[in-house]
Input
Amino acid sequence: MSEIEFEKELKAERTNIPGMLVFDLPVHGDSRGWFKENWQRAKQTDLGLPDLGPVQNNISFNAERGVTRGIHAEPWDKYISVATGSVFGAWVDLRPGKSFGEVYTCVIDPSKAIYVPRGVGNSFQALEDGTAYTYLVNAHWSAELKKTYTFVNLADPELGIEWPIPLSECELSEADKHHPMLKDAIPMAPRRT
Amino acid sequence: MSEIEFEKELKAERTNIPGMLVFDLPVHGDSRGWFKENWQRAKQTDLGLPDLGPVQNNISFNAERGVTRGIHAEPWDKYISVATGSVFGAWVDLRPGKSFGEVYTCVIDPSKAIYVPRGVGNSFQALEDGTAYTYLVNAHWSAELKKTYTFVNLADPELGIEWPIPLSECELSEADKHHPMLKDAIPMAPRRT
Ligand SMILES: Cc1cn([C@H]2C[C@H](O)[C@@H](COP(=O)(O)OP(=O)(O)O[C@H]3O[C@H](CO)[C@@H](O)[C@H](O)[C@H]3O)O2)c(=O)[nH]c1=O
Ligand SMILES: Cc1cn([C@H]2C[C@H](O)[C@@H](COP(=O)(O)OP(=O)(O)O[C@H]3O[C@H](CO)[C@@H](O)[C@H](O)[C@H]3O)O2)c(=O)[nH]c1=O
Output
């Protein structure tokens, strides 16, 4: 397992994708392992995190280094982190407007968390065997809602994502192998009000 | 890693501790690993889970088999589960009243989750190296609130907890080695309304 940096200060940073935030999380190490406030509503809303109001906490377990999932833009906001292991994350703005197609990438280890607004495509590649990826969302998933997702292909050269492990060597779902290229993707419709 | 049972039906069960619930969670396995809705507000409130309104998600990483934490009753409700690995959990009712001192134990792997009401003492022992324990709470932690906790000693023979790994061989925090026995514990004051 890669080394986690302990006792960072809680911090929020903006990215080139409007509304997306990258957090440094303090992780407290001791002889037992470590402890973190993975999400703390009061401290993080003070730093600009929207008041999430989560209704679901999802966890995916990625058995082997190289497991890659995405790119999915879903009709809810996500607050993403890892419990164990680490991932290379890649996000693509799929909202209509002038930031459409904007890409951001970074490594997430347990001392990071990412706020991904609705309409931003989400994907990641596990960098370690046994990586547990955990996220909070503010709307309930259902299989029927899949038709409202916007998908983009992980391998689209236009995105220029430099996956640490070549996708040809990676475990992907059948669905994720066949998503359209960015030029054919339909921007996600704005939230109905 | 022990085998996880996939595709169980979502189910809630009561225990001998009033208000405490044990959930079976469906875990979906595939070639990438697995995916679970670790908490799903709508489906689980239908099964009797109080509407949590979480404001914090905490994760502790337990480096080695045998790490043991507890017994802590805190002034908030907890919804507990594991992302990787497994734990032996033990709970002690520390609310004033006729269930004071009631004990419940079970193993939590990724296909289980536990609702622990405010005033019920919480503890666990990691059964595997690299166990990630994750929970949601409905009030914000602060160091000052520690004086409102009720603590009980993990080793109190009156509790009769049969720890899978003898506590003398386990990694514990200094604080957790010195908590009072049940007979000296002060029941947790009811929530102020
Ligand atoms: C998203 C979701 C999925 N499922 C079920 C459907 C499938 O049986 C299984 C896996 O679903 P898939 O659609 O393959 O999920 P996956 O490709 O991993 O992608 C999801 O999970 C990823 C994390 O694993 C997220 O980064 C993606 O945004 C999300 O779309 O879990 C649920 O039961 N609830 C859910 O919320
Ligand atoms: C509970 C909590 C703790 N902390 C900090 C204080 C310490 O630097 C570090 C570890 O705290 P400790 O008081 O040793 O936590 P620990 O013995 O693991 O017990 C807590 O965490 C356990 C899970 O690890 C829970 O089962 C207990 O109910 C909870 O009290 O994390 C936070 O920053 N936020 C928190 O919410």
